[in-house]
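ENTRY TYPE: protein
WANTED: fold as C-alpha coordinates:
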Amino acid sequence: MQHASLAQIFVMAAIVTTLFLPPAAGLVWLGCALAGASFESLATFGGALPGPAAVLAWWSIVFLPALGYAGFMLKAE
Protein backbone atom coordinates (compact mmCIF):
# COMPACT_ATOMS: atom_id res chain seq x y z
CA MET A 1 0.00 0.00 0.00
CA GLN A 2 1.26 3.47 -0.82
CA HIS A 3 1.81 6.06 1.84
CA ALA A 4 -0.12 9.32 1.65
CA SER A 5 0.80 12.88 2.45
CA LEU A 6 -0.98 14.74 5.24
CA ALA A 7 -2.80 16.86 2.66
CA GLN A 8 -4.22 13.72 1.04
CA ILE A 9 -5.36 12.44 4.43
CA PHE A 10 -7.13 15.72 5.22
CA VAL A 11 -8.81 15.76 1.81
CA MET A 12 -10.03 12.18 2.22
CA ALA A 13 -11.35 12.99 5.70
CA ALA A 14 -13.21 16.02 4.32
CA ILE A 15 -14.76 13.93 1.55
CA VAL A 16 -15.81 11.17 3.96
CA THR A 17 -17.33 13.74 6.32
CA THR A 18 -19.22 15.52 3.55
CA LEU A 19 -20.62 12.25 2.16
CA PHE A 20 -21.56 10.96 5.62
CA LEU A 21 -23.59 13.94 6.87
CA PRO A 22 -26.65 13.92 4.54
CA PRO A 23 -27.61 10.26 5.11
CA ALA A 24 -26.87 10.58 8.84
CA ALA A 25 -29.03 13.71 9.06
CA GLY A 26 -31.81 11.87 7.24
CA LEU A 27 -31.70 9.01 9.72
CA VAL A 28 -31.67 11.44 12.65
CA TRP A 29 -34.61 13.32 11.12
CA LEU A 30 -36.51 10.04 10.77
CA GLY A 31 -35.70 9.11 14.36
CA CYS A 32 -36.87 12.52 15.58
CA ALA A 33 -40.09 12.18 13.58
CA LEU A 34 -40.78 8.75 15.04
CA ALA A 35 -39.96 9.91 18.58
CA GLY A 36 -41.92 13.15 18.26
CA ALA A 37 -38.83 15.26 18.93
CA SER A 38 -37.77 18.44 17.18
CA PHE A 39 -35.10 17.84 14.55
CA GLU A 40 -34.32 21.56 14.36
CA SER A 41 -33.72 21.72 18.09
CA LEU A 42 -31.36 18.76 17.93
CA ALA A 43 -29.54 19.96 14.82
CA THR A 44 -28.98 23.49 16.16
CA PHE A 45 -27.95 22.38 19.66
CA GLY A 46 -31.20 23.54 21.22
CA GLY A 47 -31.31 26.73 19.15
CA ALA A 48 -27.92 27.87 20.45
CA LEU A 49 -26.50 28.10 16.92
CA PRO A 50 -28.05 29.41 13.72
CA GLY A 51 -28.44 26.89 10.88
CA PRO A 52 -25.19 27.45 8.97
CA ALA A 53 -23.11 27.53 12.15
CA ALA A 54 -24.79 24.33 13.34
CA VAL A 55 -23.96 22.58 10.06
CA LEU A 56 -20.32 23.68 10.42
CA ALA A 57 -20.28 22.48 14.04
CA TRP A 58 -21.69 19.06 13.09
CA TRP A 59 -19.25 18.85 10.16
CA SER A 60 -16.36 19.59 12.54
CA ILE A 61 -17.57 16.98 15.04
CA VAL A 62 -17.80 14.30 12.34
CA PHE A 63 -14.47 15.37 10.78
CA LEU A 64 -12.40 14.20 13.76
CA PRO A 65 -13.28 10.50 13.54
CA ALA A 66 -13.12 10.70 9.74
CA LEU A 67 -9.59 12.07 10.07
CA GLY A 68 -8.63 9.09 12.23
CA TYR A 69 -10.20 6.74 9.67
CA ALA A 70 -8.38 8.41 6.77
CA GLY A 71 -5.07 8.37 8.63
CA PHE A 72 -5.45 4.68 9.45
CA MET A 73 -6.48 3.71 5.92
CA LEU A 74 -3.92 5.79 4.04
CA LYS A 75 -0.91 5.48 6.38
CA ALA A 76 0.83 8.86 6.50
CA GLU A 77 4.42 9.12 5.33
User: Anything to note?
Assistant: The two ends are 11 Å apart (CA to CA). The chain has a mean pLDDT of 92. The chain has one domain: 6-74. The chain has three helices and no strands.
